[in-house]
Amino acid sequence: MSTLSYIQPTATSPWRTYLTQVDRVLPYLGELARWGETLKHPKRALIVDVPIELDDGNVAHFEGFRVQHNLSRGPGKGGVRFHQDVTLEEVMALAAWMSIKNAAVNLPYGGAKGGIRVDPATLSKKELERLTRRYTSEIGIIIGPQNDIPAPDLNTNPQIMAWMMDTYSMNTGVTATGVVTGKPIHLGGSLGRVKATGRGVFVTGREAARRIGLELDGARVAVQGFGNVGSAAAELFGQAGAKIVAIQDHTGTILNDQGMDLADLMPHVRAHGGASGFKGAEKIAGESFWDVKCDILIPAALEGQLTPERARRACAKMVLEGANGPTLPEADDILNERGILVVPDVICNAGGVTVSYFEWVQDFSSFFWTEDEINMRLDKIVVGALKRIWETADRHRITLRTAAFAVACERILTARAERGLYP
Ligand code: GLU
């Protein structure tokens, strides 16, 4: 494990998790392992000051980041998150996972990620707009339709993408729809993008279930995080006959052993901003979420949620990583020993960036596809990528995570080796 002077990862921090995952794949890369060190060095990390005038007339400063982890295979691609705990180190890890994800699915992109250390719930809509615009302007020196293309992530959405697109376009004097993805439909957004990440979680889950002989009809599902990813995945599992038995989000944890009625739950979540208080389920203690008896556990919130201690308690047949980096490496080992299949983030939640890719392609060609066409292509790409990863895992007798890294790193490092070192 190598160190960088500008960050101090702790034992459980995301960059360390990522480095461990890279170390685990190196033995399977043959000659290419010679280039492995490149994966441990982000190509470029930009830290920006984001000052805005608050509605009360005061000025507040926020920390903003955009990290381009690897650009060997194409422009940077990855979301922007607004969260009070964002750090440079976290954004580095998220950017690195984007490099792996984009390569695992064979999208023609490198990996990048951005973030602002802010709790957006404390800002008015006007303040949020000013924050987004100033941040976009500051990172404008490295983003662009051919350079690095942001998208939504935690607490960012189509409206925020519209402001980003407009700010970049005003600064460059050209309406550049391809500079961000996840935009509103009439600004060059793609049908199906909002639910694409959750759809990808469902599609990979459906395929994994088929391969391990788990029937979705009647399967018990527990979801942590009920935002854009968790709720869309839950809806699709519900439609496939699965029972959503537990949900945990930032408002609380709820349980219904018989399965929740999603037609009632969804309006409740929209109206109250979370699952807490839903009449069709009982409230339980937060930590009890990890003891819920289920077949499918979907962490779709933040990094580092599946600790070794929780992995020992979890009683699922498989874990679908809707979030990025939800499982610590030691917890991965425990789940593996216990025979619990983990479908890793870099393939499980790749549906979002896959439809972002479709959006980018549609923007360039100014020709837009139907939602059915998008969902069909998403299914095909994700299923094909999972198949290849599964075969790699079987061939080397390794976990799906290490296999996904093997497929991805081979692509990234081959590009790296073929391009060679400059100068
Ligand atoms: N933020 C999403 C992710 O983590 C999507 C990124 C994108 O569409 O570029 O994969």
- Spatial extent as radius of gyration: 20 Å
User: What would CATH call the architecture of the domain at 196-343?
Assistant: 3-Layer(aba) Sandwich
What value does the average pLDDT take?
Answer: 97
Q: What fraction of residues sit in β-strands? A: 15-25%
CATH topology name of the domain at 196-343, in short, is: Rossmann fold
Poorly predicted sequence stretches spanning 5 or more consecutive residues: none
Main CATH class of the domain at 196-343:
Alpha Beta
The CATH homologous superfamily name of the domain at 196-343 equals NAD(P)-binding Rossmann-like Domain
Elements, N to C (H/E): HEEEEHEHEHHEHEEHEEHEHEHHHH
Helix content: 40-55%
Explain the overall architecture.
Among the domains are: 40-174, 3-Layer(aba) Sandwich (Rossmann fold), CATH 3.40.50; 196-343, Rossmann fold. It contains 13 helices and 13 strands. The protein has helices spanning 14-25, 88-104, 125-139, 158-172, 196-212, 228-239, 262-272, 308-313, 329-337, 345-348, 351-365, 371-396, 400-419, and strands at 44-53, 59-70, 76-77, 80-83, 111-117, 148-149, 220-224, 243-249, 252-255, 282-284, 296-299, 318-320, 341-343. Helix 5 (196-212) packs across helix 12. 52% of the residues are buried. The structure holds glutamic acid (GLU).
Quick summary:
The chain has helices at residues 14-25, 88-104, 125-139, 158-172, 196-212, 228-239, 262-272, 308-313, 329-337, 345-348, 351-365, 371-396, 400-419; strands spanning 44-53, 59-70, 76-77, 80-83, 111-117, 148-149, 220-224, 243-249, 252-255, 282-284, 296-299, 318-320, 341-343. By secondary structure, the chain is α/β, with parallel strands linked by helices. Strands 10-9-8-7-11-12-13 form a seven-stranded mixed beta sheet. A four-stranded mixed beta sheet has the order 1-2-5-4.
